[in-house]
Amino acid sequence: MAVGPGAAVALSVCPVATALPGSELWAVLPQTRLSPLALSWWRRFGSRDSSDYSEAEVLPDSFPSAPAEPLPEFLLEPEDAFIVKNRPVQLRCRASPATQIYFKCNGEWVNQNDHITRESLDQITGLVVREVDISVSRTQVEELFGLEDYWCQCVAWSSAGTTKSNRAYVRIAYLRKNFEQEPLGREVRLEQEVLLQCRPPEGMPAAEVDWLKNEDVIDPSQDSNFLITIDHDLIIKQARLLDTANYTCVARNVVAKRRSSTATLIVYVSGGWSSWTEWSQCNAQCGRGWQRRTRSCTNPAPLNGGAFCEGPPFQRVTCTTLCPVDGGWTEWAKWSACGTECTHWRSRECQAPPPMNGGKHCSGSMMESKNCTEGLCTRTLAPGMGVAVYAGLVVALLLCVILALCVGGLAYRRRRRHLHGDITDSSSALTTAFHPGNYKPPRQDNPHPLHPSAPPDLTATAGAFRGPLFSLQHGVNDSPHKIPMTTSPLLDPLPSLKIKVYNSSTLSSLELPADMVSGDGEILSLKSVGTVGREREYHSHTLSREPGLSTSATLGNLGGRLTIPNTGVSLLVPPGTIPQGKFYEMYLIINKWDKTTLPSEGSQTVLSPVVSCGPSGMLLNRPVVLTLPHCAQLDTPTPDWTLTLKTQTHQGAWEEVLTVGEETLSSPCYLQLEEECCHVLMEQLGTYGLVGQSCPPQPACKRLQLALFAPRAPCLSLDYSLRIYCIHDTPHALKEVLDLERSLGGVLLEDPKPLLFKDSYHNLRLSIHDIPHTHWRSKLLAKYQEIPFYHIWSGSQRPLHCTFSLERGSLAVSQLTCKICVRQVEGEGQIFQLHTDIQETLPPHSPLPSGGTCLPSSQVGPYAFRLPDSIRQKICASLDAPSARGCDWRLLARSLGFDRYLNYFATKPSPTGVLLDLWEACHQGDADLVSLATALEEMGKSEVLVVMTTDGDC
């Protein structure tokens, strides 16, 4: 008989009860209501042991010793489940043999109506198989308060008893949004171990974690360099270049999937030096010169921001080459005796000096002869020779008469043609073509005549000009096409004719071969608009072309480079900047501090010399590169400078051109910043200067130099002075002080010492110590001298210096030993240890400034550029077009370090060409193609490398 909840147990179950001990029977009986007869039977016999029953012999012999069927056995037990959102879960169990199966949840029976029961028969055993399902909703689970989880289990009955299944726990699934810990981006060196940590959000069930590398799932079984720990951290055993990527931690469970923030891992490579090249040949063909060898930072090359190699990329040693000596003639020897031919001779030798070391041999004859009787030598003529001589004289006389008649006739015909005006003279045509009203001599008050000599008188030399001529009498709005005034074959162009064209309204001078004049009439029609004329008038009063502070050159379409030696200032004019067929006299000038207003305002400070380049107003087809040295300290971990490029208007006011780091598409320039100089890409020439201001919270620092000078000649008085200059750490500033002291008769005692001057409003303090008081006395009353902070920071007074006046005990005292301390109050300082003999004539000590250059002041055409034009064109053709993989000019900009603001290059017709122009300017002192070849090799541009190897000079 089946037993269920609420059913009474009949007496027929007594045989089953007698077969089990009391404790076991209670374990299998459900908690149900029993009949009074069964309860009395249980009270009487249930607590006894089976041995008691056998001894008391209360069991009848007719009861069987074993149940009719076995206990229920679960074929399927309920499993743990999670409620996702509001969807209920199904719990199922199956048992055999089973007369009833019910679920019990959290200790309470589930209502019979909530069960779904299915019954079948096992074909093998013939036992009844019963399967039951129930549904558990989110509300049921949430109604359970407390720390315990919601659980359910099955209870199955058979005639042999009951069996309970395992408990199945039902939980509400969820996944929080925020990660407990997200991975952080890092920069690591090559082959370094990397740990990226990830703690997924709290969830039920616990979230599973995957790592993504550039959105691809990382499988440690496929790449053994990756390891994912139990705590979900990602370990990269040895960082490789290909491990530079974006890494994301992804957590997911049955509810949702969460992504962490992306961590960028950059694997950098610090540079290493290659082997030294062989020593070059001595650069001097004669006398003392130098040899050079180089090495490149390509073993390996720095990558992804890795440190550049420390140390110089080149070495230089002196060498001496034997100079060629050209031969020279000795004095003539005495004349020999008069010979039978009525001549005597004399000789000389090429021995004063003899040609040596490849020198030229003497030019001319070694022997000389002449008649030694002054024509009085008598010779006997052979028979018939006299007649021949006289006949020859007669013929010569007749020829002279005929030639004179021809010349007279030609002169007469030419005079008649001029008088009657039948044919226009070519000189007249030339005079009409070059009308004197179109040409004015340069202004006498112009302090910068590009060609100080007066313009040539074109009418006086018109007869020498040949070739098609063009009228210059036209206005600004006239057609640019010129009409030749004559095509006479008498006006064929001369092979080496040069024409100089002067125009009072421009600063240009042209020297062109005649074939260029005949082929391009635009050259002779260069005129300036009013703005250019005003610019010339303005600069005529403000710019002074002093030796050592200016340079100029006539440049055309091939471009060139202007450099002011030993100042670090240069102007690169790339090929194609000036329109085809036009030439300009371009200049580069460093303005003297006492003749110009400074661009600084308020707390700003001047960091570079103020430089003018021009002529301004000229049309440029592509940007030029102006290089300016600066004295800003930039190697600090945090940016503490706000750097601004300023330009001066024609009225003398200063305007901001751009601020570094704040460029927009409307910015007219691009500024590439290096530790000691900056390179400005611009399309408008003018006057420029770099200024800076501290960027809070860190105070900025300027690099200064301290230079100690003293009189060079022996001092005849008892007074002796030491001068210490505080100047900007730029080549131009040091050169200016050296020139000043040279004019004063001073000499540099020691190499200049660097000093970092902080924007802290503290003065610069100078003091002298350890003077030998037995022989010397300081005439300074105070203990120290100070230069005000604002004078140094603003740069309004140059050059700044302090003088220490000393007095010696007698003229016999010559040794001076002392110590001079220079420091900023609450800042850095330097100490000069001086030990000198003032009676010695000190040699001039003028070290070449660190930013100086040995390049000539001007280079015109292809010689001004390190990169040949053929290679440049192939690189531009390969990289200008955008690439889907990014292997184009943008990658080249990143490789060369020019990627601070790529939008500037993107607006140019050839971005690669502008990048190469900037590379030329940055490497003008040590321009070799190794750095460029390295960048192209990393980009995979093998076809360009082949061209550079064959055509270039790597």
UniProtKB/TrEMBL annotation:
GO molecular function annotation: netrin receptor activity
Subcellular location, record wording: Cell membrane
GO cellular component: plasma membrane
Top-rank lineage group of the source organism: Eukaryota
Role of this protein: Receptor for netrin required for axon guidance. Mediates axon repulsion of neuronal growth cones in the developing nervous system upon ligand binding.
PROSITE patterns: DEATH_DOMAIN, IG_LIKE, TSP1, ZU5
Protein name in UniProt: Netrin receptor UNC5
Coiled-coil segments on the chain, per record: none
SMART domains: DEATH, IG, IGc2, TSP1, ZU5
Membrane topology value: Single-pass type I membrane protein
Source organism (scientific name): Seriola dumerili (Greater amberjack)
